[in-house]
Amino acid sequence: xxxxxxxxxxxxxxxxxxxxxxxxxxxxxxxxxxxxxxxxxxxxxxxxxxxxxxxxxxxxxxxxxxxxxxxxxxxxxxxxxxxxxxxxxxxxxxxxxxxxxxxxxxxxxxxxxxxxxxxxxxxxxxxxxxxxxxxxxxxxxxxxxxxxxxxxxxxxxxxxxxxxxxxxxxxxxxxxxxxxxxxxxxxxxxxxxxxxxxxxxxxxxxxxxxxxxxxxxxxxxxxxxxxxxxxxxxxxxxxxxxxxxxxxxxxxxxxxxxxxxxxxxxxxxxxxxxxxxxxxxxxxxxxxxxxxxxxxxxxxxxxxxxxxxxxxxxxxxxxxxxxxxxxxxxxxxxxxxxxxxxxxxxxxxxxxxxxxxxxxxxxxxxxxxxxxxxxxxxxxxxxxxxxxxxxxxxxxxxxxxxxxxxxxxxxxxxxxxxxxxxxxxxxxxxxxxxxxxxxxxxxxxxxxxxxxxxxxxxxxxxxxxxxxxxxxxxx
Amino acid sequence: xxxxxxxxxxxxxxxxxxxxxxxxxxxxxxxxxxxxxxxxxxxxxxxxxxxxxxxxxxxxxxxxxxxxxxxxxxxxxxxxxxxxxxxxxxxxxxxxxxxxxxxxxxxxxxxxxxxxxxxxxxxxxxxxxxxxxxxxxxxxxxxxxxxxxxxxxxxxxxxxxxxxxxxxxxxxxxxxxxxxxxxxxxxxxxxxxxxxxxxxxxxxxxx
Lengths: 475, 207
Ligand code: SF4
Hints:
The complex is a heterodimer of chains A (475) and B (207). Chain A has 475 residues and is of the alpha/beta class. Chain A folds into 2 domains: 5-264, Aconitase, domain 3, CATH 3.30.499.10; 287-466, Aconitase, domain 3 (2-Layer Sandwich), CATH 3.30.499. Helices cover 33% and strands 17% of the residues of chain A. Chain A has 16 helices and 19 strands. Chain A has a 5-stranded parallel sheet with strand order 5-4-3-6-7, with helices on both faces. In chain A, a hairpin with a 7-residue loop joins β13 (287-289) and β14. In chain A, α6 runs parallel beside α8 (213-221). Chain B folds into 2 domains: 11-176, Aconitase, domain 4; 177-207, no CATH class. Chain B has a 7-stranded mixed sheet with strand order 4-3-2-1-5-6-7. Classes of the chains: A alpha/beta (475), B alpha/beta (207). Chains A and B meet through β1, α2, α3, α5 and β8 of A and α3, α4, α6, α7 and α8 of B. The complex binds iron/sulfur cluster. The site of iron/sulfur cluster has 13 residues of chain A, from loops. Iron/sulfur cluster binds at residues 62-63, 107, 109, 128, 130, 345-346, 406, 409-410, 427-428 of chain A.
């Protein structure tokens, strides 16, 4: 019997079995940011420990960074303090920091791949649950807490139990207007927000391998929303071509040797899995959440589910979600009015997301009364989008164009929902209060759907806008 | 209370506090705006903040606001508790508030791992038993619960409720190695050997 990529990479990085039964796993790449690292550095200092592999650790600032006025000191004193702590720690321990002056700053899960740090067959840890994103490259990425950040800083290792592996086979072809985001929302809706507990997800099948690296990152990113700490896609030619030539990618003959390695760690054709789940991409339609967790999602053609029809343990959560969202059972999500449109986050703020959204917006206007903004995932994406004219398209349509960061994905910077505002969002979490206002409401959807909602002022089937020419603007 | 790093953790004794509901996420346990800090100190007062206070800062009915539970050490929860973000701020906020053990139907993986790494036992238990325990604690908040790691039980008065703690966490708590840094560092030679065989750390010449 063959082995899965997950088990091959795990075995290669396993230092030893610990007495408690866990494995000590070597971490090839450690990414840190300003929110979850300062306490870990503090713990190191208290114990007089050093960073074992500062050259395998890289830092960026994303969560608290303001996206409008970025001059220092930040107007928010606490944000400034966190920024200073990161500057100080990276200087003291000799860790490379992609700060605002570097031109490389951005959301941690976006810049890793962009700079070629994220490569197939490596283990990655980061104090952020969406570290699963990097699995798109056939890497194994673990979201970790602060105590584990301390462990990785000190020993370049973590203590962890080996999960099982579930293969998620998505065959068929996506229809126009249906995207990677819809695939993953459908998987989470089907398997539930805790369906992946104890599993790593291997995403496979023609619909997954037809995706660009960016689409694969969107899918792997949201693995954790389905309870799976790890998600990955086996590396193929698309992966290899994406990595080629990036700053930290191997060069010349080393690249050729790297490709050999990357191919060798892909899952064997006869690999064994602990579980298999299949999904047909042909019949998939745009997905949207109606509730307050990412599993509470339906296709646009469906009606919101009846609480009584759900398994008993889901009913209370669903009833509470309906109350918070002020939505009814058995209603369509199309036409639900929105106040805010947010294009951003490590799920969907890459260049292809912005291109797709811009193609919907082009020649149209944001509905008056809707606050719409674009927050590119990194400075590089921002520059590219500016060069391609996407920024102009968005601004002409009435979107605000911002600097890179997490922004309204979690509302730790000034970008927040107000009061009971309802937001069409390309991000990954619709938890109550997630976007910065306890009463705020979030509808998760693809970037193209966010663009369509911004234009119409309500939830709209993007497929209609895709096939219809825009009406003349300003007539 | 903060623990020393090599303490053996076998028994947590104290009153319980129930937080009902499935899929309670870490944004609910500690809203992101309170994570603007460079230490974990003081997080306790923000645990479940948006459920404890309304938009104007008025107190809402919530177990964490209930005087009768103010001495609680054992948090009782339902399923998939702690899902969402990896923020250790969530268990840290609970710990700073006074929680020393959590008992629930199930926990999100990163949350449970964070708890163990902090020396907080996270014990799972069947729905019905959790319901009973919650009922006991709600009707008699002063009831002292005893969470026993080795035996994997919770004792309430003279009644015993069987639960389960994954072997790795149990061994770490009982062995005093739940803070894994020293353990991981104890074999630097093995770390070095692993690094030496990883193709990508060796110009892809080995492997
Ligand atoms: S964009 Fe959102 S989900 Fe991604 S790292 Fe930032 S806060 Fe976390």
